[in-house]
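During the second half of the funding period, the structural biology subgroup turned its attention to how the target accommodates small molecules. The most pressing case was magnesium ion, which had performed well in the primary screen but for which no bound structure existed. We therefore specified the complex as follows and requested a full 3D prediction, including the ligand pose.
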Amino acid sequence: MAKKNISILGSTGSIGVNALKVCSNLRNDFKVRYISGYNNYRLLAAQAKLYKPDFVVTSDTNYMNVKKRLKGFKSVILCGDEGLKRAAQDDKVSVVVNAIVGSFGLKPTVYAAEKGKNICLANKESLVMAGSVIKKIMKRTGSSIVPIDSEHSAMLQALNGEDRSTLEKIILTASGGPFRNRKGSLRNVTVQEALDHPNWSMGNKITIDSATLMNKGFELIEAVHLFDIPPSKIEIVIHPESIIHSMMQFIDGSVIAQMGLPDMKIPIQYALTHPGRTHLDQPRLDLAKISKMTFYKPDRKKFPALGLAEAAAKEGGTLPVVLNTVNEIMVYKFLDGKVKFTDIIKSVEKEMRDHRNKKEPSIEDIFELSGELWKKLN
Ligand code: NDP
Ligand code: MG
């Protein structure tokens, strides 16, 4: 069978680097045609030398930096939004991995959906902000989304071969983040403490989202869109060992779980080989060594992000755009030392309270609102 051409957007990030490793493992089936990075031009150029993609996309500012480093190499260098659009829409590309972080990932998802691509989606923020709009586009163009997020990959795997109408409930597991056992106020936790995730090694933004549990709130909204299920039928359970990545409960009371060591290469590769599987040379789960798994309900007072995300999921419209955008702005402010940890979710709550929800926004409405919030809060 001919190799499939693949674009890896955000190849210089935590997911992107793993996606390239997975592509090496699947080199008989995939040819990396595009890679993209933003600030990290050194790594992007190094990846280009190693993986030899046909195209390399960077930011406008880093165009010359990448060009200089790739002198004598065949890869064509593109930049900015136009470059990402080509990577997402190239006729020769059939699979687009979107591993760009945050709201900057939305446009490329829309570009790829418009062209009917198979999207392997790590950028959950796309679905949080514009899940309904993206699904409408996908219906029109025949595009599909396979999740890379480990929880949603678990859900998809647990659904394999099942009649979807027999799904009763999703049990979405969460590690609980670095502060799950911390007593007292989280106001004065440091950036370093918040970045110290117990089980997963990830980019800074999602690591902070995991510390506030906003990441779990986003994943709830992501599941609503991916599996067409109301938020009331998704239960969030803290599972500190991060071995069960999520579970599906069916109408006969059966619960199917997917397990594995916390390694993103597994869900990334599954997204590329779904519904089949390919050998992956990684350490295996040893249950006797893990010896026990624990589960408990999240503390919603300590982690108000969960309630806010549930409200946004229930209301829909532009409220999830506010949830996502304000969170993102405040996370970067926290990382820059400009606000306290608890200010992140306080600001999200305030802006959601003040927001007049528009029920069926267009994609333009969503970009406009997001842009206004960036201006207002910066
Ligand atoms: P990283 O911060 O590690 O990587 C982000 C990537 O996006 C980098 O390639 C970065 O380029 C690029 N990027 C940043 N800003 C822009 C921009 N304005 N335009 C274009 N590209 C940009 O993030 P992660 O890999 O951790 O996460 C990526 C996505 O995957 C997020 O949506 C996250 O929620 C999701 N995800 C991540 C998981 C993980 O384990 N990390 C697990 C599940 C989901 P550069 O570095 O060159 O600036
Ligand atoms: Mg996840």
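Two results from this model are relevant to the next phase. The first strand starts at residue 4 and ends at 9. The chain has a mean pLDDT of 97.
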